[in-house]
Amino acid sequence: MAKLEAKLVTIINSVGKFFTGNEDIPWCDRDVVAGCEREVSEAERGSSDELMKECLLRLSWALVHSRLPDNRQRGIAMLEASLADTDNQLQLREKLYLLAVAYFKNGDYARSRELAEQCLRIAPDWRQAVTLKKTIEDQITKDGVLGIGIAATAVGMIAGGIAVAVFRRK
Description:
InterPro entries: Fis1 (IPR016543), Fis1_cytosol (IPR033745), Fis1_TPR_C (IPR028061), Fis1_TPR_N (IPR028058), TPR-like_helical_dom_sf (IPR011990)
Protein name: Mitochondrial fission 1 protein
Function: Component of the peroxisomal and mitochondrial division machineries. Plays a role in promoting the fission of mitochondria and peroxisomes.
Keywords: Membrane, Mitochondrion, Mitochondrion outer membrane, Peroxisome biogenesis, Transmembrane, Transmembrane helix
CATH superfamily: Tetratricopeptide repeat domain
Radius of gyration: 21 Å
Subcellular location: Mitochondrion outer membrane; Peroxisome membrane
CATH class: Mainly Alpha
């Protein structure tokens, strides 16, 4: 358990760095996911519904922050399945945010931005969602500039190849 707590402290520090702009969205390792899965298993054996929901939300957090795409997909499935049963605006905001993180980590920036904007409609000043939305938009801009650079290079190479072919024919 001490090992899991140490890893959680590392993750919390990473989250803090994310909000100050010093680091990307934090990652979570297999040990934390396994610890959260054990928590859910224990909660299934007679705990209150509220405790079970808390454990499932922690597991969802760990899964969407995982480096493993299968874990992120599992987290997305869990969160999307639970959205319909969420009537508390705070819990809805949390789930939408976690979905936005998962889609961001999967490279689906449009869906991620849409979910971050839904969070901001619920809580316009929520710092986590504001920071995530900016991170998403920065990534979209970066990818767009990179894409333009790649396309310009390809066009240049094709034009150069044509010019060389025409020049050789003369």
